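User: As part of a screening pipeline, I want to sanity-check one entry by hand. Below is the sequence and the SMILES for flavin mononucleotide. Please return the complex as structure tokens so I can compare it with the automated output.
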Amino acid sequence: MAFEKFHYKTLAQLTETLADQGYPLPSREDCSVLSSPLSIHGKTVPNRIAYQPMEGCDGTPSGSPGELTIRRYRRFAAGGPGLVWFEAVAIAEEGRANPRQLWLTEDNKEDFRSIVRMIKDTCREENGFEPLVIMQATHSGRYSKPHGKPEPIIAYNNPIFEKDAPLSPDHIITDEHLRELEDMMVRSSLLAQEVGFDGVDVKCCHRYLNCELLSAYNRPGDFGGSFENRTRFLMDCVRKVKAAVSPEFIVTSRFNAYDGFPYPYGFGVTEDGGLEPDMTEAKAIIGMLAQEGVDLVDVTMGNPYFNPHVNRPFDGGPYVPDEHPLKGVGRMLYFTGELQKAYPNVKVICSGTSYLREFLPNIGAGLIEEGLCSLIGVGRMTFAYPGFAKDAVAGKVDKSKVCIACGMCSMVMRNGSTPGCVVRDPEVYLPLFKEFVHDRNIIV
Ligand SMILES: Cc1cc2nc3c(=O)[nH]c(=O)nc-3n(C[C@H](O)[C@H](O)[C@H](O)COP(=O)(O)O)c2cc1C
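Assistant: Here is the complex for your manual check:
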């Protein structure tokens, strides 16, 4: 089934369609709440816009930020977000998603120190404040490609992903290796603290390794089966990192509350084989994190490889989804709201908002004022409109600059190049789209 692409002229038309899709989300004409500061872990976030992690696949072979990485973060910083959730940074070479994924090591830590400093300085010079900067620490697991070809390290065999070609058992990570990775997570977090990040995200989303473990119902041993075992890697990492870093350093997680795959292959879903979200375990995770002193979480959903319409609702992508894009947006924001309401003392960031375009501030203000999240996370919008935060906070978002959810940034990435906005930043990214997508005639 195909849907009409985004055509809403008024906020009322948009919210009516959200309601028709089953998600009557709140909205406001007055978006001034977006300019209000928020206290997190004793630090002040100057406004309510968080720039979500957006990997540029543009680092150097040794894992340092490259020229385009620095350009991206300079533009983000000038755009005035209260929080920059710095993209996926590998904790080990084997877990890099591509040979240009960032990878923080003892040898290149000065390069990270300088990009963090640049983000803070640029934002201060342009906007008069410094944003919080949190590093996302990752192991790509099933999606590891450290040398450009798949070298999957999986939590368990999954027939939805592997179909009739199951990966051999040597791809399944051992309990011993998971324990080694816990220590590598600690090492990366200490380096992140040393180079000036305000916090670290023990990444547990989008079906990378840590996230895949959440649904390892049929994995034997200490990291599979029971809820306690499936969350062991996440919780061990959080506890060990917290014990190692200074108390002011933020320890958080961006985690999948719902994967969008049926039980027993998806987390956050009912056990009847359907695809209905069930937030029982996601709530329990936030409760356990809160007990460890975590006071900020970033909630997301889906898998960018297998069900990108759940992860980032779009008008253009690798397939035509069988649900309205606003249903995807509504699902993400509604269930994030359920989690925030369950734990009002934990600051929750929402995801999957860029599809809302110029109405994003209106919905965002409604969500914050009704206690359905604490910060509005924006992803693809940052590529298209790096100055979005500044303009949203000032109440003057420019419709001609917004993300149009065309999917071209992802296509460039999936075809092995460095993603950015092909439409709004064509000087750099249109030639890459032509070379890596158009001329090869591949849409993935
Ligand atoms: C090109 C690209 C790179 C991304 N990189 C990351 C990443 O490094 N870490 C992460 O957690 N999510 C990543 N995401 C997902 C986004 O952070 C975000 O969750 C998603 O785009 C949906 O939000 P949006 O609708 O605001 O774009 C990426 C998405 C895209 C399109």
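Points to compare against the pipeline: The chain has a mean pLDDT of 97. The longest helix spans residues 175-194.
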